[in-house]
Protein: YceI family protein
Amino acid sequence: MALGLLRRRRSRGASGAASSISVPLPPGAGACGFEVLDPMGQPMGGAEVTVTALDSHRIATRGATDPHGYFIATLPPGSYSVMIVAEGLSPARENLDIVAGVARPTAQVTLQPARQLELPTAGTWLFDPPHTAIRFIAKHVGMAHVHGRFTRFQGSIRIAPNMADSQVAVRIDASSITTGNNTRDNHLRSADFLDVERYPYIDFTSTRFAHLGGSKWTLHGTLSMHGTSRSVGLDTTYLGSINGGYEQELRCAALAKAELHREDFTLNWRSMLARGIAVVGPTVQLELDVQAMYRTHDTPTPPQ
Structure:
């Protein structure tokens, strides 16, 4: 997979349409491109772009727009979701299909000022697993990044009248880790890494919500993994609430990220290197892409 600032032919017409792109395609790959503009129609450099495979919920690639507002990537054929985020502006989402040998025309996306999002209704909200993803990215020593996720988890959010007093609790089944490679997954479940027989769960419990401005929050809390607990902060973007879903129930959404250091949880990568064991690097990027349903006496049970 290639990602970068590839060759472009800037050919705007009178309508201001986005330029076409000329991309050297690897065998069996296709390409997509975006030109991101701010609300004044000016190029938006530094906007964060995340491309996620719809079938696996795995991040296919991510990066930032260049100073001219462009983001271009080559990808395997398939269906993808693209999210574009910039501070102070409303996120933009769209789906696209990648076809082998085809470079899609550059799509022009204009980000709009972030509306003042109404905070979630006070009460209990439950994670909806089919619409929630818990993902991670780790650098494989001497090789490319490893993308993975956990497929079994449960979570709840208790929204207090004072948002700062709200609480989040997440429990992850550690054995549900998957990276698309059975040998690697079994090794990650072993005593060398997560040791799932002794420590079957990874738990996060928040202690407080800190508002950073706009839709940005930090969730301070405790992460317990591999028999060790550490204080962590989740950088969180609140994406709003809506009525919709199985029975038009009330839903809210958020995206939370954190960087974890494996040695904080006694996962000693240096000793494994000394023993000749190929391992992932010392830091892991964790991401929770959450949809939650407001709990009432008649809220449908989220499917597993």
